[in-house]
Structures are given as C-alpha cells and as structure tokens.
Design a protein that fits this description.
about 270 residues; alpha/beta; 8-stranded mixed beta sheet
Length: about 270
C-alpha cells in the first residue's frame, strides 16, 4: 500500500509539473498576408489562478522558426514562471520583421504589431497595454525587436536585441534582405529607411525601456557599438552590454536571461 501511495504521489507531482510547464503551439491567421502562422506561447505555472500577465514577444533569427527559442533555452517555461510573464514566439520566416515594400505578401511588422497582439490579448489574460508588453529577439530577431519597439512605442513599453543586425547596410548581400527591400545598390534610400539605427527619432518623447547586447566576437559587434554611441549622442537612456561571446546559441541562452530580468523589473512598475 505504501508503494502504491508513493507512485500515486509521484504521478500527481509529475502531472502538476507538466501543467506548470505549459507550452502551446497555436496557428494564427494573418489577414494581411492571407496565411496561417505558427506561434509558440509559454504560460507561467500560476496562469490558471486568474491574474493578468505581461507579455514578452521573443523573435527568432534568420533560418529559424517559432520553436527556435524553446530549443535554445528549454528552461524558458521556468523563467516565465519565475518572472510571472507570458512569452510569445512567432514564426517570422526570413522577413526581418518588416512590411516589405517589394513583396506585398511579406507583412510581418503588421502581423506582430497588430494581428498577433490582438490575438494574444483576446485569448489570454494579458496586461493589454504598452506597460505590459515588451519585444526582443536574436540576430534578425534582434533587429525585429528594436524595429518594432522603436516604431510602435504605443504598443511596446520595452524592447531589446541580442546579437542584433541593428544596421543592415554593411551586409547588402546577406540573409535574403534584398528579397524584401530590393538590391542595396539600386535602392539605397529604401535600405536607409529600413535599418534600426535610423529609427531613433521615432522614440522621442515616448522612449521605451531599451536593452541590447552583443558578443565581442560577433560579426554584428561593430554595428551594435555604433548604435550604442548614437543613443548616447542623442541622450536616449538604454542598457547596453558588450561581453565575450560569438553569434551562437550559447551566447543567446545566456543573454536572454539578463533581458527577461530587465523586462521583469520594468513590468513590476505596473
């Protein structure tokens, strides 16, 4: 009888753990692109208790998908519970999270900023306002985190980037960007308009809380240093960290823990 009780206790504990680590994969229809898009949604353990939770939109990099972040950091559900947040990871394809001026079927800025936020707020208990919403990501998604955060200060109270392509212009032949913008040598003005470092005037006076970082061995290190200096010149408050590391999963797994803590401290002001 004692052994049966122990087995039942362990089974109940296991089931409770599975409930605590709730990770949903949902398909969301995008009217602007007329497609369904996959998204991973991570809920904190106490989600069922009835409170409303702030949301962090976590964007993947080039060649990634909605499941990239949970593969890089399988403990994201634990972090969602620790900080009392919902984490949403959309599949941004290789879009750089732009509304492409070339391809009318590539409207991932509209998807994340309008369609996905509306879906999440309507189906989950969220703090539905800029004070309860942040966006960040890695590499291409780091560009997306600051691109969306800078251009939609009414929606995101905080934004970030880790190893982000925060200035695309030094990389005109890379990562299919010319598919979304056209060739750089033929569309220089368009590329200037679609790079993060040229969006700083958009964040005044409603500046979001900003955090970004990059490894010293990363090929994006120089453009992140340049963004940091430009923010300093404009006296725009931000947190910037440069530390040893390359453009890889080990760096991003470490970096996102700092960023989620940063967002947690921001959300605590609610």
């Amino acid at each position: 009888m004692k052994n049966i009780f122990i087995r039942l206790f362990l089974l109940a504990a296991c089931c409770a753990g599975l409930q605590a680590q709730q990770v949903d994969t949902v398909s969301v229809y995008s009217p602007s692109m007329d497609i369904h898009i996959e998204n991973v949604i991570i809920l904190p353990a106490d989600y069922e208790r009835g409170a409303s939770f702030p949301v962090v939109y976590l964007l993947h990099g080039y060649s990634g998908n909605a499941k990239t972040w949970i593969r890089i950091h399988p403990e994201l559900p634990d972090l969602a519970t620790r900080y009392g947040i919902i984490i949403v990871c959309p599949d941004g394809k290789n879009s750089w999270y732009w509304d492409s001026p070339v391809d009318p079927k590539m409207r991932y800025e509209t998807y994340v900023a309008k369609e996905l936020i509306a879906y999440v707020d309507s189906r989950y208990r969220t703090v539905a306002g800029r004070d309860g919403r942040a966006v960040t990501g890695l590499s291409m998604g780091g560009h997306g985190g600051l691109w969306l955060g800078f251009r939609h200060t009414d929606l995101f109270g905080a934004c970030g980037s880790t190893s982000g392509g925060v200035d695309i212009r030094p990389f005109p032949e890379n990562w299919e960007m010319n598919r979304a913008l056209g060739r750089y040598d033929e569309n220089e003005a368009r590329w200037n308009e679609h790079t993060v470092v040229n969006q700083l005037d958009r964040i005044l006076p409603d500046t979001p809380e900003i955090i970004f970082d990059c490894g010293t061995e990363d090929f994006f290190c120089e453009v992140n240093e340049a963004l940091h200096k430009k923010l300093l010149e404009k006296r725009i408050p931000h947190d910037y960290t440069s530390r040893p590391g390359a453009h890889n999963n080990a760096y991003w797994k470490n970096a996102i823990e700092y960023q989620l803590l940063f967002f947690h401290l921001f959300f605590r002001r609610i």
